[in-house]
Amino acid sequence: MSQTALITGANSGLGYALAQALAQAGWRLGLVARDPKRGQAALEQIRAATGNDALELFIADLVSQQQVHSLAEAVLGRFDELHLLINNAGTAFRKRHLSPERIECALTVNHLAPFLLILLVLDRLKASAPAQVIQVGTRIDTALDLEDWNWERRPYRMLAAYGQSKLGMLHCTFELARRLEGTGVRVNCVFPGVFRSNLGKTDGGQGFFWQAVDRLIGWALPRPEQAARGVLRLVFDPSLQGLNGAYLWNGRPIPAPLQARDPEMNRRVWELSLALAGLSEISYLQVASVAT
C-alpha cells in the first residue's frame, strides 16, 4: 500500500518540486494551495508528468485559523492514513498585516498555521506510525521578542518578522519532538538552502524588491528541484530515519539559533503558540482526540 503525504504550498516552487518527487515515488498526495486555479493546474501537471492519479487538492488560505481547521477536517475526512506532513508554505510581507484573528500575517502563515495543522492531524499521524513531520525552516540567527511577537510596539521589518516567525516554528519543532518521543512520529526542521523561490513575490506588495533580487542573482541560484532533494533526504535516506528533533541542511545537523537551544524557551514559545492558536493544553488534548 502506498504511503500518504500532505504538503502545504504545493502549487509552486519548493512545494511543487516536493510533490512531484513524492508522486514520482508512488506516494498518495494531498496538495494544499491557496488559489484553486493554480492548485488544480499544479495537480494536473504533476499527474501528467508522473502518471500518479492518487493526488488530491485541498484549498486553504493559511492566514486564517478557521481555514486551517477546515483544512484539517477535510484531510481527516479523505485520508484514513497520514504518514508525512510537510509544512512548506511560507511568506514575507513588506508591511505589517493582520490575520482575521488580529495576528501578524507572517507569524500566522509561517508558524501558527503549521503549528495548528500538526495538532489537528496529530492523532492520524500517530495512528499511521511510523510517520513524520518535516518543517521547512530558514537559517536566520535571530531571537524572539516574546513581549512584542505581534509587532505592536516595534517598527515592522519584513526580514526580521520573517526570521522570527520561522524561529517560532523551530522552537515548537524541538518542543514537539520531546513530546512525541515513543509515539512513532518524528518531527524535524530542514533548511532547504538558498534557491530560486516565489517567496514574497506576490504577497505584501513587495514584488518590485523580489523581482530586482531575482534579476540580480536569481540566475545563479539552485532550482527548487535541487532544494527538494535535500528536504526529502529525511524521507528516503535510511541513515536519517531515526532522527527526531533535528535541525538539518542537506542531511547534516546545523546549529540552531542560541535562543532555540533553550528547552525552557521552547516551552514558553509552545505555550504562547497554543494561546495564539486559540488552544490550551487541555483543549489541545480534546482536539487531538476529536481529530480521529
UniProtKB/TrEMBL annotation:
UniProtKB keywords: Oxidoreductase
Native source species: Caldichromatium japonicum
Top-level taxon: Bacteria
Pfam families given in the database record: adh_short (PF00106)
Protein name: SDR family NAD(P)-dependent oxidoreductase
An annotated Gene Ontology molecular function: oxidoreductase activity
